[in-house]
Design brief:
Blueprint: E1 2-3, E2 8-9, H1 12-15, H2 42-49, E3 56-57, E4 60-61, H3 64-101, H4 106-122, H5 153-167, E5 170-174, E6 182-189, E7 192-197, H6 215-227, E8 233-234, E9 237-243, E10 251-256, E11 264-266, E12 268-270, E13 276-283, E14 287-295, H7 302-305, E15 310-316, H8 330-336, H9 363-387
Parallel strand pairs: 8-15
Antiparallel strand pairs: 1-4, 2-3, 5-6, 6-7, 9-13, 10-11, 10-14, 12-13, 14-15
Helix pairs in contact: 3-4, 3-5
Length: 393
Amino acid sequence: MSLNKEPIGQTPEVAGANVKPLFLSFESLAGEDYFDLANVSENERRDLYAEPFFFKAIDANVSAEALQAWKQAEAERLTAELTLVSEAKKRREEFAVKEAKGEIDEAQRKLQADDDAQLRELRPTWLTWGSAASASALDADSDDAITDLPSDSAERATVIQSLVERRSPRVLARFESEKGPPFLVARQIGRGEVLLATTGLLSSWNTLPKTNAILIFDRMLRGMTQATLARRNFAAVERVTLPLPSEEHDLTVELYRPGRTDAEPLDIGYIGTEQRGITVAGMYERGVYRVAAHRRAMSADPALADKPIWEVPLVVNGPADESELDPLPRERADEIAAASNIRWVSAGEEISLAGSAIRGQYTWWYLILLVLLFLLLEMAILAWPLLKPAPAI
């Protein structure tokens, strides 16, 4: 994919009376998560995305010829990168063997440091990817997980071709028609994704910021941010795999299931070519599962043994239909309440107290009478001195 020199269209200031706005092709948006709104009908979505006018956009060349040229260049780049990674891995293994024997000189240490710096530049680690304990396991066929290229040329070409196809640019939305100029293009780079919007957010280029369709960019931002966060909420599943920090080797890992205080030890093994991790099995009960790791060296110290070096909560949710409140039919309610002192009262029906044990409904009369008696007593006490005969003078 490349960008053509000349843009598409003109701003109203330049075009004047000859302005020809572009519109989003609703058919080109089908099946894309950024544009598929929950609980919104197709007609409402069609009206929503028809609101903005687009006057100018850059011209992204996604023709078959441009994509083929990009794929060829990407295949050459990936081949060189994966070859370097594979060779660096072999040198690291040789370095570890020689280091154990004490046969490492300064030149070899410098070569190993250069390899590590080059690998960090080729495959940087940031956001949640920086901590293996909080990141998801790598895909088995991702370029970050591949450290050895097959020796067979045909197998090597197949691996490279698979990576190139997955990283190829995808047009998510177009102007005018399903084959019109691209509006939104996505491309995978490493373990992330880059989006190209071919028009700006200035009013002279389009009216998008003045319409409700601007929510497209809100959904992009939220969706891409969420993609960087490790998954921690699951439905009832058979097993979940978690990687362990590569810098920690002497670890014991325990699992605490919902509602239990006893720990369940987990076995540590390899979940990838060079990635150690653990597998949590039998996550069928809803609730919060806690995976905690301790250093073995701390187990002799009770004060430190109880404090994990890291802890990951995993939440298992029940079926969504269990949280939906459905109205209970009267027949079913009568059946449930047959043995109970419960009576169904429909909307608008008079509440009857017949046949019920009723007490205390006239208590307020006695309370009022008691208050009156106290008032009379108070008046009598106050009037008593006035009723005494006056003494003779």
